[in-house]
Specification:
about 100 residues, alpha+beta, two-stranded antiparallel sheet
């Protein structure tokens, strides 16, 4: 298991199928929520807010075009990995 970068909660090792090289992708906010629980709580109002915000990030990257659009569609980008943890579907978190 890869160790996340400072300030990040999760990390994933990703292998490039063309070159065979691996890289580490760190994502998610480190630390605990106020009550001591996990920050990521899918199917809550907080999750819906996160999903809506991150969808805006994704759309902005696509709007810019070029390499940004490619990154927005990459399933191993930090934004997409976080959206997966929050169980985002569009602007809402799955219930």
């Amino acid at each position: 298991m890869a160790k996340p970068a400072k300030g990040k909660r999760f990390a994933k090792t990703v292998r490039n199928p063309k070159t065979g090289r691996t890289r580490k992708v760190s994502f998610g906010q480190a630390g605990k929520a106020k009550g001591g629980g996990d920050r990521i709580r899918p199917s809550t109002k907080k999750a819906d807010s996160y999903c809506s915000r991150s969808l805006g990030i994704k759309r902005e990257m696509i709007r810019k075009g070029g390499k940004s659009a490619k990154k927005a569609r990459d399933p191993n980008s930090p934004n997409n990995l976080s959206r997966k943890k929050w169980r985002c579907v569009g602007a809402k978190s799955r219930r």
